[in-house]
Specification:
Layout (H helix, E strand, L loop, with lengths): L1 H29 L30 E7 L4 E4 L13 H6 L3 H4 L3 E7 L2 E10 L2 H37 L1 H13 L13 H66 L3 H29 L2 H5 L2 H15 L4 E6 L8 H22 L3 E9 L2 E8 L13 H12 L3 E7 L3 E9 L7
Parallel strand pairs: 5-6
Antiparallel strand pairs: 1-2, 1-4, 3-4, 6-7, 7-9, 8-9
């Protein structure tokens, strides 16, 4: 657009200057009174009859006078151009070669019916093109300078805005190396401030989760040791004493010659063996209910609840267990059994309830478990949940289910769990 406008400006200026020059020359010729004797001579001396050198300030026109023999006699341009401010050739070509598109004007010079020669006025846009070239160079230089300044400002602004990224990466590195107390400051940029808040919340949640896992691990280790201690106690106090009695009665049988004494010792051994079988059965039941493998989840739950009710006769139990529990996989079945077992244990220890409601039924792809008691309950925000409740939650969420606990001192405790029926057991 700039080049096109420049071409039009050049054409208009050259045309106007041509008209002006023609008028001036016409006036000059009309007042011409010099001697014309040189017109017929063949001499090469150049006499300035029109004083064209005085028009050297007319930049856009090359004015030349040729005599009748075609020899150049006068011009407003020096023979050799020494202009160092001209534009390069490629720029003149880019301008569309304006000088060739402008035609020269030929004016014969006739005085007293005599042809003295011819005045040739040729448009010369080189000066105007040179000015445009210098203006273009100036604009390009200014644009380049503007480009550098803008890019510098953008770089500074982006660098200032993204400088907190280093702090974010540093905090992430600290988390990667196990420093769960790493936190981000509150940034002034709103977008990064949101990232800071989310990161700090995530780090706090991760820290709490890790601390809970450590606490649960320690509780699991302590419970394992307690379980081993109880098993060792049962083996030593119960099984050990019975084996000692069996050994004594067996020694009596070996040493006696009295049949009746031997029978009494044998009967004592039989009674002690029966007691040992009951002790072993109770231990196995505590470790893993045998009915769960033999009769399934439904019968095992009924047997568990009935045994618990016999030990807690002051508490009424409302049971609603679906009979369609035969196809449940082993992992879901043992988890459901342990949840009900833990709930009944907690009710015995803490609830002081008069009514317990137990409801278990499959719905869609989940097994729904509901256990509710009307005891005095507890404040879930103030009371630290022990391993029993945390263990139930871990069991359920570990299988991809959901666990919900609600409690207050008026309505008691309500535990709801959903266990997926189709799960992939990790190897």
């Amino acid at each position: 657009m700039t080049i096109n406008n420049a071409q039009e400006d050049i054409r208009a200026e050259v045309d106007s200057t041509t008209v002006l020059a023609l008028h001036l020359l016409d006036a000059e010729v009309s007042h011409y009174t010099s001697d014309y004797a040189w017109a017929n001579s063949n001499a090469d001396d150049k006499v300035s009859i029109f004083r064209l050198q005085s028009l050297d300030n007319v930049r856009h026109l090359r004015i030349e006078f040729f005599d009748s023999f075609g020899r150049l006699r006068d011009s407003n341009r020096p023979p050799v151009s020494s202009d160092t401010n001209s534009s390069p050739d490629w720029f003149e070509s880019l301008m569309g070669k304006v000088s060739t598109s402008l035609k020269a004007t030929h004016r014969p010079i006739i005085v007293n019916n005599r042809i003295l020669g011819e005045m040739v006025i040729t448009p010369d846009p080189s000066y105007e093109i040179a000015e445009i070239w210098h203006d273009t160079i100036g604009l390009l230089s200014l644009g380049f300078l503007f480009f550098l300044v803008v890019n510098g400002m953008v770089y500074w602004a982006v660098d200032s805005a993204l400088r907190p990224i280093k702090k974010i990466l540093n905090a992430l590195t600290q988390l990667e190396h196990g420093n769960l107390q790493a936190r981000l400051p509150v940034f002034s940029l709103p977008e990064l401030s949101s990232v800071s808040n989310k990161f700090n919340a995530m780090a706090q949640t991760l820290e709490n989760s890790t601390l809970n896992n450590h606490r649960l691990t320690q509780q699991i280790i302590r419970l394992q040791e307690d379980e081993r201690k109880n098993i060792a106690h049962d083996l030593h106090d119960e099984i050990g004493q019975h084996l000692t009695a069996i050994n004594i009665d067996a020694s009596v049988i070996l040493k006696t010659d009295n049949i009746s004494t031997a029978k009494e010792s044998a009967m004592a051994i039989s009674a002690v063996a029966m007691q040992m079988m009951e002790i072993v059965r109770a231990m196995l039941q505590r470790l893993r209910p045998a009915m769960l493998d033999e009769l399934g989840l439904c019968a095992s739950l009924h047997e568990l609840i009935e045994t618990w009710r016999q030990r807690n006769r002051s508490i009424s139990v409302s049971i609603n267990i679906s009979s369609q529990l035969g196809c449940i996989n082993e992992t879901t079945a043992i988890t459901a059994y342990r949840i009900v077992q833990e709930c009944l244990t907690n009710i015995t220890k803490h609830a002081n309830a008069r009514l317990v409601t137990i409801k278990i039924e499959p719905k869609a792809d989940y097994l729904k478990i509901l256990v509710h008691d009307n005891g005095h309950g507890f404040d879930t925000q103030l009371t630290s949940q022990g391993f029993g409740l945390a263990g139930m939650r871990e069991r359920v969420e570990g299988l991809g289910g959901s666990f919900h606990l609600s409690s207050n001192q008026e309505t008691g405790v309500l535990i709801e769990a959903s266990l997926p029926l189709n799960i992939k057991v990790p190897k």
